[in-house]
Amino acid sequence: MPKLDRSAYYDLTRDMNWKLRYVSEEEAFPEEQSKSYGVPAEAWWEWDEPYKVTYREYVYNQSDKDASTYSVKSAIARSKLFDQVDPGWKSAITAHYGAIAYGEYLASIAEARMARFGRAASWRNMATFGTLDETRHGQLQLYFPYGLLRKHPQFDWGHKAFHTNEWGAIAARSLFDDMFTANDAVGTAIQLTFTFETGFTNLQFLGMAADAMHVGDVEFGSLISSIQTDESRHAQQGEPTLRILLSQGKKEEAQRLIDVMFWRSWKLFALLTGFSMDYYTPLEHRSMSFKEFMEEWIIKQFIDQFRDFGLEKPWYWDIFLDELNWLHHADHLGVWFWRHTVWWNPDAGVSPEEREWLEAKYPGWNDNFGRYWDVITENIRQGRIEKTLPQTLPMVCNMCHIPVCTPSEPKQRHIAPYVSEYNGRRYQFCSEPCKWVFEINPERYAGHLNIVDRFLAGHIQPPTVEGAYAYMGLTPDVWGEDAENYAWAFKKAEGGKATAV
Amino acid sequence: MAQVPQRRRAKAWSLWEGRRIPSEYEVISHKLHYHFRRDPAPFELDPNTPLNQWYKKYREGSPFQVDDWEQFRDPDSVTYRDYIQLQKEREVYLDNLIDEFERQDHYAKLSKPWVDLLEQLYIPSRFSGHILQMVALYMAQMAPASYITNAAYFQGSDEMRRVQRSAYLAKVLSLDHGEHLADSQRTRAIWEDDSHWQPLRELLEKLLIAYDWGESFAALNLVVKPVYDALFIRQIAELARSNGDTLLALMHDDFGLDSQRSQRWTTALVKYAVERQPEHRTLLKDWVEKWTPLAYRAVEGLAPLFAKAPQPMQSGKVVEAVCDTHKAFLVEVGLE
């Protein structure tokens, strides 16, 4: 082994900051690629990463990881483990691969942006490792569903989703592009690595890994855990960036970056993780409810982080806490109803036992949502499946691109939709914060058409639900069907109790 | 409900157009840049948002275009998994090499004049190497196909590898030959103020702002990097050998492997593009002609330092050797 420890020479691996002479600062670090917020160049040079790593350590450590992840995969491929896994769980991972595989690879572009336009050499180095990490994550999460193509053509959407205008893909792109693919390096450090990665994904992946092991999906569990071990390294880019902004008196700017992206992340997270945890994961393997998970991990942790930095809770915190009670239930009902518009098989998750669990975890669930499911259940029992499928498109938010849901409790103060006018055009939003994100920066979003705008503008032909399915790239062999082929609707409650109708 | 035709169970991605089964490399690299040439804009925001405009101007708007980039293949077909495995082996090799030389107290045996020269000629190269890293990652994020992007990601990572080994050497030399060798301010002062370095610095700073994707590729991979590597790998290795610094020579032989890998995919990309659009030969040659004079001036700036070594190499010979190496590469690539 070379005689020097990393700590002896590490400073020399990251001191390559210099004053430009032959080109200007603005030419080499244009504001659109790297917002300086008026912070002088040499102040950025103080950027200091908590976790230090050198290239040689990186390749050593990663080599071991990949060896074990791929060998689990080979072992599983030879077994029939996947065939035995619960259909709801299969749906959860099908949704995951489609939304996340490309998301990870896109993040490699964002990391590369920081590797070029980050305003300190140390930052640029960490981002170079981040670029490699996200390349790894993209490639792993393509390779795994590819291996499952024989099991179900829906796994093709692990590769195809982002090429389409399926509404979930639009929502994912809208979030990811705002957060990182089309964001400057400084914004990316705060919004991707700090807000999204340390705030949300870190914990979601931990949760999913644990659930996967419970469910018996060893392959997915080990994939996700392995990905997670990389996360803390590149997610650390947010903190030093934030520290510099705060030390230079840019607290308002930092607060705004975080507030915008916490809300936007929440919307997609509620959709994907909400239905995964509370409806698709088999009942016996649910360790906590989505709301409990959010309260325990994200709310508690995030509040601590805010406090540590002297930041405030976002202004919409009460709205967020309220949405924790109902948003994902409404999203799930909508996704199930519009199941032909997604590439996985939504698991209704409303068998009698599951409804008991939902009522216990979310008192009032039966009054608010159960009564809709009652109607659906009855239609299924009477063989009227066509009544459980849509005739129209829902109203869709111009910010998060998720259908606008209103709580069915009329005493709620929310009204839907929230509306904004800008340059003669009307925009519709699901919530006050989504509207606020638009209004503080309309030029970033104004020229974009959501899927309903496109429908109304004649982009979707024929202008019918069938036309919409085709526009979204969905065909009967891949679009979503009920995960259990409606078997749940025929289950009786324990003890022969009649289910509510 | 409409009759759904029976389909054979899918064996490859639906977006894979080939008749044969894709390789693992292709499965995880194919068509990932769905945003390239997307209407109305690459990214799912207002079409005129700054980064949508940036990509439309510098990527979709570059003169370096072909109909379909997705058939390009890195001849080494490197995936992340491959890259890590490959470089881990190389890093183990370098560790063992360094270990062996350290056991023989290599650094203490180097002469003062040689070490003084290293301070002037070699130690500041972590600044220039870092810029090569930055530009490779820029070129990567602007490339129109993931097959190209990935190869460029690995190239940028290779630059970081080289820089970090030079940082190690700077420190370890300082233990025997003086703290100044590991003094960041001093090293930076050479990079910023020493006249030998200014032409290279000018070249690299200008390279940083070559934002057109095609020009970035051509300037970096057809001119700057091959010229830089010819000087800082081949010529340095020869100088080190003549001066009894076998460790430095062997390390640079190893970096040469990374450099050759970059040249292989670069050659393949040029051939790919020119086959499809013969006029790209002219486009690429024009860019080469634009950047070469500044690159050769950079070499002329540093070459006199080679003559200051205890076992000197004539400045003119160094320049000639680098230019010859570069020209040979251009011939191989079909641009000379």
TrEMBL record, chain A:
It comes from Thermoflavimicrobium dichotomicum. Residues 414-448 form the YHS domain. The keyword Oxidoreductase applies. Keywords: Monooxygenase, Oxidoreductase. It is an enzyme of class 1 (oxidoreductase). GO terms for molecular function: monooxygenase activity. This is propane 2-monooxygenase. It catalyses: propane + NADH + O2 + H(+) = propan-2-ol + NAD(+) + H2O.
TrEMBL record, chain B:
GO terms for molecular function: oxidoreductase activity, acting on paired donors, with incorporation or reduction of molecular oxygen, NAD(P)H as one donor, and incorporation of one atom of oxygen. The keyword Mitochondrion does not apply. Pfam families: Phenol_Hydrox. This is propane 2-monooxygenase. Its EC number is 1.14.13.227. The keyword Oxidoreductase applies. InterPro entries: Ferritin-like_SF, MP_mOase_hydro, Phenol_Hydrox, RNR-like. Transmembrane segments: none annotated. It catalyses: propane + NADH + O2 + H(+) = propan-2-ol + NAD(+) + H2O. Keywords: Monooxygenase, Oxidoreductase.
